[in-house]
Design goal:
The protein is α+β, with helices and mostly antiparallel strands and 288 residues long. It contains 8 helices and 11 strands. The longest helix has 15 residues. The N and C termini lie far apart (39 Å).
Length: 288
């Protein structure tokens, strides 16, 4: 049985949703080696958060682009995810995390490092990076799911918000890749099969043209500011988690600090939202 092990870069994982079943140790070690090889150039240590088991009746196609890690201080998950996403945008020069925080404060997008508006996140990305942004709204299903998977398979990051903790806070992940379970009858473009895990293939550039109707199961690889480890989200669980973003944390509301919350609250600012980033001149696409 093939087994491998969070917004990956999409927003922080809602960990309570995941079953606590793990892979056999040999497969766990192989999964760590696969990802560490891709991370070695950035000299960033990490491990996968492994869960569940993957059907041996599917072909598994892995897309991923490594990004550096950064541990947040305070409610900075969205800003940290944005900084990590910059590694996949072919920037002419590095943009410091301090610069991102400075611009967010100057524009009134944040007060404590929080970002409760995906629209403001898209505008901030266009201001600090020379990049194009697209704000998805509604639900992360249907056409939006297709756009997210095409975007990730092309090597570009996606920012997705989700509840880190039902009571105290929310988070964002930067999704950097995907693990797709493809129906056995589908003929893969030229890809490299993993030497130790039968049925796992490492995507080549030509593999980004796969038909979505061949995808039986979908997982997203992501990172977030609370851990240096990669996580693997079930797309369905991430979508359901994102849909739970409806209310501002009572604990934060009572802590005496000022937060920037958009008109319509957390539901209007984050629920059903995702931000797609790609290299290029600053351009913001209206919500879809």
């Amino acid at each position: 049985m093939l087994s491998l092990s969070s917004y990956s870069i999409s927003f922080s994982p809602f960990q309570l949703l995941f079953p606590e079943s793990f892979l056999p140790k040999s497969l766990e070690m192989r999964a760590l080696l696969i990802m560490q090889e891709k991370q070695s150039a950035a000299n960033v240590g990490f491990s996968l958060s492994l869960f569940s088991s993957f059907s041996e009746h599917l072909k598994w196609l892995l897309f991923n682009n490594p990004v550096p890690s950064l541990i947040q201080e305070g409610p900075q998950c969205g800003l940290v995810a944005l900084w990590m996403a910059g590694a996949l945008l072919s920037l002419p020069r590095a943009v410091s995390f301090g610069r991102i925080v400075q611009v967010a404060l100057e524009r009134g997008y944040t007060a404590q490092g929080e970002m409760f508006s995906a629209a403001d996140m898209a505008k901030l990305a266009g201001e600090v990076f020379p990049c194009q942004t697209e704000l998805l709204s509604g639900k992360l299903e249907g056409e939006n799911r297709e756009r997210i998977l095409r975007h990730l398979s092309a090597g570009f990051p996606v920012l997705i918000p989700y509840p880190w903790n039902l009571v105290t806070c929310l988070s964002r992940v930067v999704c950097t890749g995907a693990l797709l379970g493809l129906k056995r009858g589908f003929q893969l473009p030229p890809c490299q099969e993993d030497k130790e895990i039968p049925g796992l293939f490492h995507a080549s550039p030509s593999a980004s043209s796969f038909p979505l109707d061949a995808v039986a199961e979908t997982y997203l690889l992501s990172k977030q500011g609370k851990s240096c480890r990669y996580q693997l989200w079930s797309y369905t669980l991430l979508q359901e988690s994102n849909a739970q973003l409806t209310d501002f944390s009572p604990k934060r509301a009572a802590d005496g600090k000022v937060y920037i919350v958009p008109a319509g609250g957390v539901r209007e600012g984050l629920c059903g939202k995702a931000v797609l980033l790609r290299p290029g001149g600053s351009e913001i696409h209206k919500p879809r």
